[in-house]
Amino acid sequence: MPKIADQDEVRLTAGRALLLGMSLVLTLTLAAAVLSLPEDQPRLAQVALERLPESGVGNAVTAVLLNFRGYDTLLEVAVLLLAIIGIWSVARTARVWIKRPDTPILRAFVRFVVPLMPIMAGYLLWIGADETGGAFQGGAVLGGMGILWIAAAVWLPQRGGRALLRPLLAIGLLAFLIAATWMLLARGNFFEYPPEQAKDIILIIEGAAMLSIGATLALLFVGGAPQKEESS
Amino acid sequence: MIGSAVLYALGGVALFGMGLYALLAYPNLLRKILGMNVMGTGAFTILIAAAYRGSDAAPDPVPHALVITGIVVSVCATGLALSLAVRIQAVTGAAYLTPDEEDAP
Amino acid sequence: MTTVLPLIIVVPILAAVGAFVLPRWSFPVALVGSLATVGLAVALAIEATATGAVRHTIGGWRAPLGIDLVLDGLALVMVLLTALIGLAITLYGRGYFGRAAPETEKGRQAVYFWALWMFLWAALNALFLSGDVFNLYVTLELLGFSAVALTALADKPNVLKAAMRYLIVSLSGSLMYLTGVAFLYGGFGVLDIAQLSSLTRETPALAVAAALMTAGLAMKTALFPLHFWLPPAHANAAAPVSALLSALVVKGSFYILLRLWLEVLYPLAGTFVPQVISLLGVGAIVWGSLQAIRQTRLKLLIAYSTVAQLGYLFVLIPILALERDNTLVLGGVICFVLAHASAKAAAFLSAGNILQALNDDKLSKLDGLMRALPLTVTAFGLAGLSLVALPPSGGFVAKWLMLDVAISRGYWGLTVVIVGGGLLAAVYVMRVMGRLFKQAAQPEVLSALKPVPRVMEFSAFGLALLAIGLGFAGVYVLRLLEIGARAVAGGG
Questions:
Q1: DSSP state string for C209-228
Q2: Chain C residue whose CA is closest to A30
Q3: Which range of residues forms the domain containing residue C396?
Q4: Is the pLDDT of residue C243 over 60?
């Protein structure tokens, strides 16, 4: 193994002092600019809150994420899928779960807490329309569930279910694309939901996105593409 | 900007500067990746601070939505960077970038 | 009214998803996606030339609340360029990766290549059409991630290290850009470029945003002296990836930089910042050319040539920021983008063919290849012609326009640099051509060459013809840039 310690030292050398000085100057300049920001600048808050009733949801952040700026979120869900594709192409094998910490505490935790997690995720998704919550929060819970499963060897991708992984990772992005394109063809504008159905459409998209986000987060933990048992 | 929002924005600026320093100064890839995460957190904090203006006005939802997007992108970036770092350590045996080998086409 | 505009982003994303979910069908899916995207680009060109600039309000909300897609002349030219080069890359990629099954290492790489390349194409289209500074951040990340993953595909130590350097530069550049966005929003309260355009004034927030965004984007565009990451990444990647990186990816971040200085940061046109950018461009031309002349490997030579040629894109920024309405100045820069993209893609694809045949790209091994690979060598020669900017070629027209701008405004130093840069390019191009046309020192090497699929030779040659053909298309490019020129100048 290499001597990582040699490269890991953090002693202040002349070069680092120079970098430190440069970072300080940048920080102070940015701080001065922060202090100069106007106090009463008109913002997007007014118009976002004014038009909130047309968005189909009551939570202003959800309205921005899924309706007003839903296109940003589409690209963001694309980034998630892209990250998995990139990681699978770089990392040759998935090997995290080989050293699984198979303890009684973890087992019990998995048995009693994990069954509650899909319910919690669904609740976060549902409540996200009007209160704090949403697809990302729900997806994070699902991702945590997946990691617990893998850590406790309840479910291992190399044992089965691999054929479902790719569609599961892609379904959130596909739901976004289909809904947005459908609205484009039906109503003339990409993402233009009819106000009376906006909430239903948003919930369906968020549900699909939540599944993909959960799967993505759990598989980010794993590393590479799950393969058959003998090759891992 | 006023009141506590300024403090948050200044905190964000400080995080940005610290992250940048760590990114530039240390060769270890994990430190660099952590540095980028700290930088990102700084950028998000500055954005969130921009949502609070005036004590009685409702917070602006737009920066919050932008930051959620930014956090997801940052998680993806970290995952990609870590897997690349792991692969580099597997291939070159080092957790930092060694000089290039000569003569490889 | 218009329905095609978002589809040019949707279709390549769908192709990327399809290539990933159906690994056995990844090439057919990518081919259909490529052809459909090219078709959509042509449809957009017809639409925009008939009706003028197109603004699509996503969700029907309209900026500032929603995000608008904007197709003006500048965006259209970039989308068309990407379509032409993209089609050639797809065809080349078929020859390069072949028909290996997904279970083999080569087939595995092919699946990821097709999915990542389609994502990259979608990212470029989304970037060119975006009218929102935050949305541009997301497109930048899509572009950066797909480019880095494509670089790492070759999986050799040098390539992985180059990909890591590239990722670090790309991510920190994006974060600097994002912090600039935060200052723009804090200072002016909107994210839409056209609206920012009518609001920006010379304030500390704008200055800081300009510094952060310019520095971040310049890093991503490999502007001297922040170019250190580019040569190893571009030279060590797989041939179709090298072509993509040099021809298109660096142009993405440059395009944002250009738009920002034209539409948002122009109140700072009179400060020293644009002058510094221009000076660094001069530094890039000189340093990159000298490095290219010193190289002993073909792909590294082409990569350093990219460092040099990118310099030309930056030298006119001060004039552009002052004369935002002047399509002639913009035309010079954009003609250069087109000429460099097509010539550099042709050069990297030709180099890929040579590498495939020889299994080596040392200049000393290239003697006499003209006899063995006439089509590939001709393609490289035509691309070289455009890089040196000899008539008739796209490079010549671009430099002609740029020289006209520099001379008419009395920038004599710049005039000398533009002409001198062409002479330096002639030196490095001739170093390669001299070898290729030489009598082979070891004829037995030529008879042991590995075969190169015809489609790889023809796609390199097609791009070289494009590089030359652009020499006759200067007027047409200028006419396209006129579309919605008021929108370019700030929403009118």
A1: HHHHHHHHHHHHTT-TTS-T
A2: C208
A3: 4-488
A4: yes
